[in-house]
Amino acid sequence: MRLLSRFFSPRLEATAHCDLPCGVYDPAQARIEAESVKAVQEKYQNNEDPEFRTRAVLIAEQRSDLVKHHLWVLWTDYFKPPHFEKYPHLHDLFNRATKAAGASGTKGSMDPATGAALLDLIAEIDKIFWETKQG
Amino acid sequence: MRLLSRFFSPRLEATAHCDLPCGVYDPAQARIEAESVKAVQEKYQNNEDPEFRTRAVLIAEQRSDLVKHHLWVLWTDYFKPPHFEKYPHLHDLFNRATKAAGASGTKGSMDPATGAALLDLIAEIDKIFWETKQG
Amino acid sequence: MRLLSRFFSPRLEATAHCDLPCGVYDPAQARIEAESVKAVQEKYQNNEDPEFRTRAVLIAEQRSDLVKHHLWVLWTDYFKPPHFEKYPHLHDLFNRATKAAGASGTKGSMDPATGAALLDLIAEIDKIFWETKQG
Amino acid sequence: MRLLSRFFSPRLEATAHCDLPCGVYDPAQARIEAESVKAVQEKYQNNEDPEFRTRAVLIAEQRSDLVKHHLWVLWTDYFKPPHFEKYPHLHDLFNRATKAAGASGTKGSMDPATGAALLDLIAEIDKIFWETKQG
Amino acid sequence: MRLLSRFFSPRLEATAHCDLPCGVYDPAQARIEAESVKAVQEKYQNNEDPEFRTRAVLIAEQRSDLVKHHLWVLWTDYFKPPHFEKYPHLHDLFNRATKAAGASGTKGSMDPATGAALLDLIAEIDKIFWETKQG
Amino acid sequence: MRLLSRFFSPRLEATAHCDLPCGVYDPAQARIEAESVKAVQEKYQNNEDPEFRTRAVLIAEQRSDLVKHHLWVLWTDYFKPPHFEKYPHLHDLFNRATKAAGASGTKGSMDPATGAALLDLIAEIDKIFWETKQG
């Protein structure tokens, strides 16, 4: 957060604060869980054992929840008003990314294409995240 | 979700889907936890016992997390693109409401004013929520 | 809790205490989760896709757990000895309601009738709850 | 559960069911967590370091929650109507035991006497539990 | 932990410390969850209802996770360097036991033989645990 | 696991296996949480507000738990017997690293030196991890 004050000087001073848990953020947390979802989906497609498939659905559900959680934390706790001004589509991007880890995405389908689509959206967020860190 | 199809007919058809866990949403879940946060803050102000205060801070932290979670679920799982078009400030409203349950709000201060501010933001969301349900 | 002291004056004075997290209780928390269970059961009956059905069973299990948790909190944390004296069947009602969200109820069967039975029991608890709040 | 059918033959046949997660219950789960609470309380009394005390309060809170959870599971999932008929004070015993792990007990005070009182109540439940198992 | 200092006198003095949550450990916690896993596996084999089987897989997964967690806590929080010197195979034993509650064990198969194998490994740990407690 | 011993010839074959949830591992998960712990410790040292300090202790406790969890998963789920043969100190390294996130490390002290020591141990694990991946 300290880096930010360099680049968004006037406005961010107003909103900047010392979030106790906020100094360390990394979209890698969401990405790793999403990679896990996609890997589970691929294994699901190659294995017709019903026990295995039940476990795969269960694990994809849990990991998708973790993706949503990590993205929500970034959206609420890391990104500040100046970021949303600079990247006007950022709200929508996060909303679509979290939806892509939900019922219309990796929860609702074991098709690895949904996992890949989720990873693409996280990559977009990751790019913006590092831009804001580098100012 | 069925009600929605009446009002946002063309566009929502495209995005509507049968979210398995989504039929039942209610901002009351976030509101009840936020009321709990505010009540804990008030008790904190009236009790200087250190054990009590430690527990109050801990519980306010947990309840604030629950507020954030319930709001995030509404934002991602309940609200759809047509809602965001109709209420252009809805993204920002949710972002501010979840921040108000974080380090710059009810987590970072035991002042009941932060709990009251959080409840006001949830009331704004609640109003929009019921408008979308009634079409 | 403050309201209670008006109605159960002598006895409750003895048992009343300042539960830090107890000022805010609402059976709506259990009801909302139970409505979710019933909605999931109905969708399960109308969809034979195995992935969907696995997710429905999983979600009904989780939501039933939440119902049990919310009811247990009411039974232990909100209701006090004077309530149990005034409503002698209250222990049994809570025991049956939490069982109705378990293996003999909404966990053990995806029949929406179990969800409806659970909601009826919660409605009975809700009625008593608001009677005790209004004195 | 199979043992039960020996002793409560007529009545329990009606209520007996194959709870998937219910074959294995043991009050030791609640007792171990309660012993932990009491040990933490004792260490709290012997250590005035504020960091240590904050952690002690936090851990006592978490472990007390686990005690409540394990007791609630026994009360709802293990004990059946015939047990409550045979031990008419069992509802009240569980209600007092779970309250003893709450704000009026081990959560609300770091006095090891509250931990000891909780352990006594769990010992009463334990005694009844094993009577019902031995039939 | 206090008992230990009697037996491992020179070395343990150096490593002994007052772990706030560590005074109370008991391998019974892992054993009870593992017994639950094995019971669920047996019921799974005797019931072909798909809803029941989905729940059984889900519960075995959760209970296996609890077994792993309880074993990890023992391995990291209870056992100290002098124990690992005295029992050179203890690291490997814990590694095999936690793997036996994972994908190559009770998570990956509903065969009760995997539950029995897990219980055997926990019994080995339990034997060492009580030897270290008795000095 | 039994299959593994068959094709342990080239090393990468050795690490490939079809554990359903295991295809994706990354020590970054533990590192990110440990960086958060250290950042929280530093902020604690620079802020004497009692509410802030209570929250800092609480968050360090939670994040330390996450570090332990992520490391335990690597130790049990990712690393296999051939790894432990090749790196004979790996068991001890993981045991020390998880202890370093416990009562004798980042839980028991808010000194950032404990956070730094934890990060060093994770870096050692990370180095070995990537060696085994590149096989």
UniProtKB/TrEMBL annotation, chains A, B, C, D, E, F:
Domain of life: Bacteria
Name of this chain's protein: Superoxide dismutase, Ni
EC number assigned by the record: 1.15.1.1
Taxonomic source organism: Actinokineospora guangxiensis
Positions in coiled-coil regions: none
Keywords noted in UniProt: Oxidoreductase
MF terms in GO: superoxide dismutase activity
Presence of the UniProt keyword Oxidoreductase in the record: yes
SUPFAM superfamilies xrefs: Nickel-containing superoxide dismutase, NiSOD
Highest classification ranks of the organism: Bacteria, Bacillati, Actinomycetota, Actinomycetes, Pseudonocardiales
InterPro entries reported for this sequence: NiSOD_sf, Superoxide_dismutase_Ni-type
Record's signal peptide: none
